Amino acid sequence: MCGIVGAVAERNITTILIEGLKRLEYRGYDSAGLAVYTQQGNLERRRRIGKVSELEAAVAADPLVGQLGIAHTRWATHGAPTEHNAHPHFSGQELAVVHNGIIENHEELREQLKGLGYLFSSETDTEVIVHLLHHTLKTVPDLADALKAAVKQLHGAYGLAVISVHQPDRLLAARSGSPLVIGLGHGENFLASDQLALRQVTDRFMYLEEGDIAEIRRDQVSIWDVTGAKVQRETVQYHEGAEAADKGEYRHFMLKEIHEQPTVVQRTLEGRLGKDHVLVQAFGPQAADLFAKVRNVQIVACGTSYHAGMVARYWLEELAGIPCQVEVASEFRYRKVVVQPDTLFVSISQSGETADTLAALRNAKQLGFLGSLAICNVGISSLVRESDLTLLTQAGPEIGVASTKAFTTQLVSLMLLTLSLGQVRSTLAAGVEAELVEELRRLPTRLGEALAMDAVVEKTAELFADKHHTLFLGRGAQFPVAMEGALKLKEISYIHAEAYPAGELKHGPLALVDSDMPVVTVAPNNELLEKLKSNLQEVRARGGQLIVFADQAAGMSNGEGTHVIAVPHIIDALAPILYTIPLQLLSYYVAVLKGTDVDQPRNLAKSVTVE
Ligand code: G6P
């Protein structure tokens, strides 16, 4: 994913820009560049394909010194990863822009600007921004005013930074759908797409809100909101606890990572949603062409990532009408697979280094798939490098071995895939995409509400502390959620946990049910609820203890042997994401009660790079 760093200072800012880019490397990128207003009064840039270290070497060989500059790591969406497509983009030698996000009406703007005599030197959507701004400056000479006018013509998502030779005391920024943060120094100020990039220069930050335009000078920051009104944004002091490698106030990384989910889900959505649709280009420059040909999907993954794939099968078939198969990588890689024509191979992995998943991808390349897509949390992983398309989950580093935030961000990414395929292939029912985009925007808030169940789930965990076996039940897309709940419990509390589709209960597991075996169920208020209730009766009739996570409106209540825990209401399609949260909390608190090593459970590894 792209990254932005900017600085305006009295000292030379080149090293600050490069250090900032290095701190954003974990997000994944394919080229890097920077532009500096030099002491000679020119705008100069260096750009390189590959690592930031290559850019650093280029700057060392041919130094750039200045007090104002912008820098970028690019993850190609429009145009291949080449030096001429790398940012910053210039208009003449006067203006430089770096941009995160996707400008949807770039083709139309490009034609208009060409008509006005602008010459384009890249295939990027970004280049239209810099020429559009240049054109606007002819009639609106102030850079901030011109930027306010120019962004009104942009459709899509952007976080951008601009510098100009004509007003070299300021750095301009605009945010819409892609995050930006201002770092406040003493007599110097900074800008970045992620505060991590600026931690070496400041601990005070100001987060831009949607629609904000900022003018950042050495000793002053001015911000205008979406209506054009001048506003103040709160200054936030950074606290150590916010760092990924630090547990902060939490007792375990796992609990911290569970609580990070609203933030990382928000981050996974950022820059990928248009007004009422998903931005298909978020999957890469060739995504729209490739998706148009997809008639089937084959998903391959391991562990928790496999469960995410199983949820996606329900979504792809129900919402987008696209046939989907899901298989664990260790099976897929060793069996003779018959590939349906026009099948997209999708691998899902937190680490991007899981040996079986990687081997499955390598095999898939020989099997005649249409193309490959990696849904992955690590931008510089082998899986990403070797796949045709990538969508990075933005979960940030996950330390707890039991995966939590990686799973929910995978689910969000798979919903984006479902809507993108449905959009490109016109297989979604009318209004579905707009409604789900709206609901996805609300999802971080909903997840926050689910996290408020923490105390009640902690209390419920007491029911499990002395048990040796449990059953998890779900129906429809909640079945894989039950599987993931069972996996979490067994991974960290060492209690034997099995998941079943609730309809299978009578075909075997019912024989195990007695008062010593808690049965956990996820029960959103959907068309399968009544069927699920009947299955639960079957458990109660055998003296089984039920723990039911149910929609507030599901009409279920506590009774003897039945513990109902209310879950906030959510649209059914997104219920698998929300219902995962109480199950994660449950396994966490059971493990804490049992005194196990929550973050590093016995015998398990975070990244399984061997077969
Ligand atoms: C290990 C981890 C799991 C993870 C699985 C797949 O078993 O402990 O948390 O789900 O590997 O890993 P991946 O990185 O490919 O998602």
TrEMBL record:
PROSITE patterns in the record: GATASE_TYPE_2 (PS51278), SIS (PS51464)
GO cellular component term of the entry, any: cytosol
InterPro entries: GATase_2_dom (IPR017932), GFAT (IPR005855), GFAT_N (IPR047084), GlmS/AgaS_SIS (IPR035466), GlmS/FrlB_SIS (IPR035490), Ntn_hydrolases_N (IPR029055), SIS_dom (IPR001347), SIS_dom_sf (IPR046348)
Keyword Hydrolase in record: no
GO aspect biological process, one term: protein N-linked glycosylation
Catalytically driven reaction(s): D-fructose 6-phosphate + L-glutamine = D-glucosamine 6-phosphate + L-glutamate
Enzyme class: transferase
Location of the Glutamine amidotransferase type-2 domain: 2-219
EC number: 2.6.1.16
Annotated ranges, domain SIS: 287-427, 460-601
Residues at the active site: 2, 606
Quaternary structure and partners: Homodimer.
Function, in words: Catalyzes the first step in hexosamine metabolism, converting fructose-6P into glucosamine-6P using glutamine as a nitrogen source.
Name of the molecule in the record: Glutamine--fructose-6-phosphate aminotransferase [isomerizing]
